[in-house]
Amino acid sequence: MGSAREVLFYRLPFAVIKSFNKMLSDAYVIEVLEIDNADGTFYMVTAETPTKRCHVRINANGNVISVVKAKARYSSDSTLADATSR
Length: 86
Known about the structure:
The chain has 86 residues and is an alpha+beta fold. It contains two helices and five strands. The protein has helices at residues 14-23, 77-84, and strands at 3-6, 28-37, 40-48, 52-59, 64-71. Strands 1-2-3-4-5 form a five-stranded antiparallel beta sheet, with helices on one face. The radius of gyration is 13 Å and the shape is globular.
């Protein structure tokens, strides 16, 4: 049995923030989930840059477990900014 909850990016452990910023410093964070289960605690961070969307899974120690990249939902900086201001 496990649990999941949304958390704010700045509430993540420092090691997780540091690892994420090292990988995707130019990304806009869309969603952060904290997942606790029998395997431990890890964080699923969904972020987007002008060219790609990434789903990054990071454990509480800051180790990147997996990265899934997809095409960005928005194709330019202006449309991304428009979407995030809503």
